[in-house]
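A common beginner's mistake is to predict each chain separately and then try to dock the pieces by hand. The better habit, illustrated here, is to supply every component at once so that their relative placement is modeled jointly.
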Amino acid sequence: RKEVEQDPGPFNVPEGATVAFNCTYSNSASQSFFWYRQDCRKEPKLLMSVYSSGNEDGRFTAQLNRASQYISLLIRDSKLSDSATYLCVVILNTNAGKSTFGDGTTLTVKP
Amino acid sequence: NAGVTQTPKFRILKIGQSMTLQCTQDMNHNYMYWYRQDPGMGLKLIYYSVGAGITDKGEVPNGYNVSRSTTEDFPLRLELAAPSQTSVYFCASSPRAGGRYEQYFGPGTRLTVT
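With all components supplied together, the output reads:
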């Protein structure tokens, strides 16, 4: 079983749709969580951190459920420019080498 | 503030050749990482460093070497290139301090070994 698992998709949605991605992790000692966005053939870019209380940045909302060991990303009012691969990252703060990236979920937003 | 820079952007190597991928960051981060990403796959950690003079292996270190003589620079050396090392290589840095554990990535080096 992978340490971090994501549904690879692809998710194909129309503009204006709401779409949600989940990411499950196996190490209950994990402490920091992030969502990254990666465009085709480009570097991953930090989208947002994920906190237990949930956090929102414009059309994006991230949630952490420690009991069930998953994080989620909700995108409202999808734009064409949201088309990308979304990576979840789970970090064990006490181990510098343990930043585990999911393989990513691909989103395509269509006109 | 350039962030994380990598050179070269592209490189084609013949089997058995060697090269060094350069990585520099200007954010004064102690932690630096090298990843490879094969087509359609996720990131795999090759090596990481927690500060100048300290490096450690990641998930896939075979065929690579690193050094960290300064906080800013973290070069990755490929010895005896093999076709299996064809990949995109990303360097990243992280503060890992003050509650900040996020990583910042360079633009990547696209390497082909033929």
